Amino acid sequence: MRERLRDIESRADCERLVRAFYGRALDDPIIGFIFVDVARLDLEAHVPRITSFWETVLLGARSYGGGAFRPHAELHAKVELREGHFAQWLHLWSRTVDELFAGERAELAKAHALRVARAFHGRLRTLPSPPGPPPGATGLTVTQHGRRG
Ligand code: HEM
Ligand code: HEM
């Protein structure tokens, strides 16, 4: 029988959620390369910051100082962060939340991520981005069939 899940209650819970999310995201076929190859994410440096973000949003701590958009704008200058990337990010996040926690804060974690994703994506669309992923970034060969436009 499945154990009853409890809600997110502490910074340690936020960190557990964040680590579980990155455990998936870094290996993900759609968005993994952005963290690994493009951003070359230093996970041990990043986890405390993103844990503080969620502790601030979910538990009312003041441990996160803001400025979450900027690193995404810098990333977007290297590889276009598209709607499909955000959709996959949100999918992995919601799945991870639902696997580990249940309750009001768990719901808020999903809802707030959706708001931030929409806001980020809307802002990024106003910024220039490179024409496509840098060579070799995805490990996939993109072929074009026919011409559009
Ligand atoms: C408990 C209440 C809330 C807390 C503590 C909170 C906290 C935060 C924090 C810390 C950020 C990151 C800001 C930055 O990095 O500069 C953020 C971003 C954001 N929040 Fe909330 N939030 C709350 C409620 C809400 C609600 C109710 C909405 C909308 C209905 C909302 C919409 C957004 C959006 C759209 C962003 C992204 C803004 C951007 O484009 O950078 N938040 N929030
Ligand atoms: C396509 C989707 C996304 C990608 C590829 C992505 C990627 C990244 C990367 C690589 C960093 C680290 C940047 C660095 O330290 O140099 C980062 C930071 C961060 N991301 Fe995202 N992200 C995405 C969506 C989101 C969403 C939807 C949220 C909202 C919950 C979010 C919240 C944050 C926060 C709070 C940080 C920390 C910023 C700081 O250091 O203060 N990201 N992201």
Overall description:
- By secondary structure, the chain is an all-alpha fold.
- It has six helices and no strands.
- The longest helix is centred in the C-terminal third of the chain and has 21 residues, at 104-124.
- The radius of gyration is 17 Å and the shape is globular.
- The chain binds protoporphyrin IX containing FE (2 copies).
Task: Note the main attributes of this structure.
mainly alpha; binds protoporphyrin IX containing FE; 149 residues; single chain
Would you count the extended β strands for me?
0
Largest sheet: none
- Sequence of secondary-structure elements: HHHHHH
Gross morphology is globular
Tell me the fraction of residues in β-strands, as a range. under 5%
Helix content: 55-70%
- N→C terminal distance: 55 Å
Unique bound compounds:
protoporphyrin IX containing FE
Structural class: mainly alpha
Q: Please give the count of helices.
A: 6
Low-confidence stretches: none
Mean pLDDT: 91
Summarize this entry quickly.
Helices cover 58% and strands 0% of the residues. It has six helices and no strands.
Q: How would the blueprint of this fold be written?
A:
Blueprint: H1 11-25, H2 32-38, H3 43-59, H4 69-76, H5 83-100, H6 104-124
One protoporphyrin IX containing FE binds at residues 31, 34-35, 39, 41, 46, 49-50, 53, 67-68, 71-72, 75, 81, 85-86, 89, 113, 116-117, 120.
